[in-house]
Structures are given as structure tokens and as C-alpha cells.
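Here comes a specimen:
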Amino acid sequence: MIITTAANDLVAPFHERMPAILGVPDFDLWLNPAVKGADRIRPLLRTYPPDKMAALRVSKAANSPTHETAKCVESADT
């Protein structure tokens, strides 16, 4: 399962939604089995800051789940 949220300014030109990305400080709360109820973790599912991300063009090989090579994540512009 992938939990999505609204796209940030970096992702928005490609799609209106993006995966929710947790920051390192949020890991303990997210993984704590004692936390009950969505109200405690819902605030973690916010749009990730675009300045902490990068966009790069990748090979069309990334479009197929049958491709399991580094080429799928290497920049196609290099």
C-alpha cells in the first residue's frame, strides 16, 4: 500500500498526488505500536518539502516492473 497526499510544487507538473514521505524525526511515532487512532499520525501525512527533493529524467526502462537494474534510477540526461 502506498499512502498519497497532495503533490508539492516539484511533483505537481507531473501528477496531482505523490507518496506521503516521512521525515526521519517522524519515524518513531509512525512505527510505535502503542499509538492508537489515526488522529496521532495523520499530521505526519503532509506534503513533503520540494526543496528536499530532486527531479531527474530517467530511462523508459523505469516504466516496466520487469526491469530490475540501476538503469531505472540513473539520470537519462547523462
Notes: Residues 4-72 form one domain. The chain has a mean pLDDT of 91.
